[in-house]
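Figure 6 in text form: structure in, sequence out.
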């Protein structure tokens, strides 16, 4: 996703070596001091930065690193896509109060809206303010200029008359109107692989693949929202993003092909163009790119009740409903097609270390699936066995629906080149126990289901489960958000996840009882258990890409 960008300097992606020796020829190029010796590396950087594929021409060591496999990362926030008109009106109706705080002859006001893209960055207007003190007398109040809404939060302040008595502030009351000039919602401009070179509504698709590039001219105050979708319908998170003015991009391309002798002593980026090129790098080509273009602003009025708050009153919040989990109900055939093992090398602190990714279906059942690697053989590029290698499993990663497995040496060594770095090939078998999830929801109106019962008493819920049910109740085996992981999961009236206190379980015969206490009365309970467990074995034989050579004068490429 990309909504707006800060200025991106061309060379922030590289750490240049230390300054060359005194007397070395240097030139000021696009804001960087570049020596003759480093000019080739600088050109390759520019080539990678501006290329439609993300690779230098010819490909260099960093290009090799860019091709190392990374599992797709997904964004699961339901508020990524701008809300429709109906959803927007419903969301605005949920904000009913404007908190007042006493700040010594100043009033601080705050309200919470749903964190929708439609509201982000919109500057509200406060009007029709009717404020009365504890005795019902009008209070003069002058609002200051309001700041734009950020992450759904409205913050404002205002000046009170010096003679206002704040003694009964806790009983002040009133009403206000917040006017929001929100952009009209329109259908997205949609691009796919076949649309490269096409221009639609001012947006030109310049490149498509693991790197996607779009050229367009931004309009002040009407920032577009860009979302890339995978073929499974989920939003893809980019690995990297960048924004360059078209003139700056073209000059960088030209410079990447010139000889040192033909380059002037100083070459500055041209003045900022109106047109820009946006670039997103993904682990794999997306299925489509949706561009949400805001329409002309439409004024909407939200009527709010003024409520005084003291120092202990928490900040204004609006409970957000939890996302709906993605249960796929796969059969054995579909599961066997979806599970695979990919080999790569790690980035960051463990740069170059071999790593495997056990890729699972893009389904939330993966948070409860057991994954094991067995019968492993570790080989060098020459076929030599490496029995001293051991695994380091990192557990299920919910954002990528994968299980990373890295390697280390099982034996102490003083060698600067650990044995596991020579690992080039891994053979073995991945075994998966995949649950087919049955979801049971209990509420005050439907407190019973087969094998489980709930008693709702205000902020307390008592759950009872029969022993066969308890044996099939799902337990998470890896990383996952609460709205997937918690079992049972308690939800409030707005669909928000509730956290509370649980008392020790009591078992009588074949029935187990457990009592839960919350600050907010639960409206429903979701319970998960395995209707069936599908066992699966998938053999694999993967080759790990070779590490790149380390660049001269600096540490490993990151």
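Output sequence:
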């Amino acid at each position: 996703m990309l909504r707006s960008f800060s200025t991106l300097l061309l060379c922030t992606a590289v750490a240049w070596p230390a300054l060359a020796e005194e007397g070395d020829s240097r030139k000021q190029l696009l804001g960087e001091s570049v020596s003759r010796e480093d000019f080739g590396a600088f050109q390759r950087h520019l080539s990678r930065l501006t290329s439609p594929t993300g690779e230098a021409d010819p490909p260099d060591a960093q290009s090799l690193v860019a091709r190392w496999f990374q599992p797709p990362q997904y964004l699961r926030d339901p508020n990524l896509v701008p809300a429709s008109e109906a959803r927007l009106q419903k969301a605005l109706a949920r904000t009913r109060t404007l908190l007042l705080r006493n700040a010594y002859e100043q009033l601080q006001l705050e309200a919470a809206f749903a964190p929708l893209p439609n509201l982000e960055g919109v500057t509200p207007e406060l009007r029709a303010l009717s404020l009365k003190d504890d005795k019902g007398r009008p209070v003069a109040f002058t609002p200051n200029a309001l700041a734009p809404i950020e992450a759904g939060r409205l913050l404002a302040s205002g000046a009170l008359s010096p003679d206002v008595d704040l003694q009964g502030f806790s009983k002040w009351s009133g009403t206000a109107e917040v006017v929001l000039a929100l952009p009209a919602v329109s259908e997205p401009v949609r691009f796919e692989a076949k649309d490269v070179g096409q221009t639609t509504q001012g947006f030109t698709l310049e490149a498509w693949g693991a790197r996607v590039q779009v050229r367009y001219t931004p309009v002040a105050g009407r920032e577009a929202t860009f979302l890339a979708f995978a073929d499974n319908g989920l939003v893809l998170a980019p690995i990297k993003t960048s924004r360059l003015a078209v003139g700056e991009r073209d000059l960088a391309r030209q410079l990447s092909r010139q000889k040192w002798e033909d380059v002037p002593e100083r070459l500055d980026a041209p003045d900022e163009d109106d047109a820009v090129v946006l670039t997103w790098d993904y682990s794999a080509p997306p299925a489509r790119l949706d561009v949400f273009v805001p329409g002309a602003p439409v004024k909407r009025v939200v009527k709010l009740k003024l409520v005084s708050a003291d120092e202990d009153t928490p900040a204004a919040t609006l409970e957000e409903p939890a996302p709906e989990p993605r249960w796929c109900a796969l059969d054995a055939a579909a599961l066997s097609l979806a599970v695979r093992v990919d080999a790569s090398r790690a980035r960051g602190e463990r740069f170059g270390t071999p790593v495997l990714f056990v890729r699972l279906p893009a389904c939330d059942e993966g948070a409860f699936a057991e994954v094991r690697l067995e019968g492993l053989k570790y080989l060098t590029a020459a076929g030599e066995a490496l029995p001293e290698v051991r695994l380091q499993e990192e557990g299920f990663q919910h954002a990528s629906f994968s299980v990373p497995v890295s390697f280390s040496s099982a034996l102490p060594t003083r060698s600067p080149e650990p044995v596991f770095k020579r690992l080039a090939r891994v053979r073995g078998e991945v075994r998966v126990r995949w649950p087919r999830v049955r979801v049971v929801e209990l509420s005050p109106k439907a407190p019973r289901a087969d094998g489980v019962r709930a008693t709702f008493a205000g902020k307390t819920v008592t759950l009872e489960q029969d022993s066969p049910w308890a044996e099939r109740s799902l337990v998470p085996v890896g990383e996952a958000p609460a709205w997937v992981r918690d079992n049972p999961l308690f939800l409030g009236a707005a669909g928000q996840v509730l956290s509370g206190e649980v008392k020790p379980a009591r078992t009588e015969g074949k029935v187990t009882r457990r009592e839960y206490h919350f600050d907010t009365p639960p409206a429903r309970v979701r319970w998960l258990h395995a209707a069936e467990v599908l066992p699966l074995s998938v053999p694999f034989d993967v080759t790990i890409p070779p590490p790149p050579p380390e660049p001269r004068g600096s540490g490993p490429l990151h």
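Caption detail: The helical segments are 39-50, 61-67, 85-93, 246-255, 332-338, 467-472, 482-485.
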